[in-house]
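Entry 14. Structure prediction run on the chain below.
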Amino acid sequence: RIREHIADKTKLPILIFPEGTCINNTSVMMFKKGSFEVGGTIHPVAIKYDPRFGDAFWNSTKHSMMTYIFNIITSWAIVCDVWYLPPMVKEEEEDSIHFANRVKAAIAAQGGMSMLPWDGGLKRKKVKESFKEEQQRKYCQIV
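Output returned:
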């Protein structure tokens, strides 16, 4: 459906958040590759919240939705920096994962954030044993 949408030049662009979740405003998590497989031009946008007047981040493990909403509506302001980056197109030799990582790197660099190689869903789920074992093997090779 996304391919059909972007092929029709009369339709407005689609806004997609490829992380699938938001975290604590310090890092950019792994992007889902689906948005980068359809072709077309990506117009990256870096958004970084300034928590001085009110923090937009919701730590769902600490606060209920009602507490979060109360904190948002009673905060002085929700301030964020928004940077519109130059359009990016998938290169000939690039697969969707490398393209997603290139876009992610541009966004992280602009926002002064670190890049994390794992999925944001990990904040709600346990890490797969195979992932832990892979990291342990890599560590053993270093040692």
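The two ends are 48 Å apart (CA to CA).
Filed with the rest of this week's runs.
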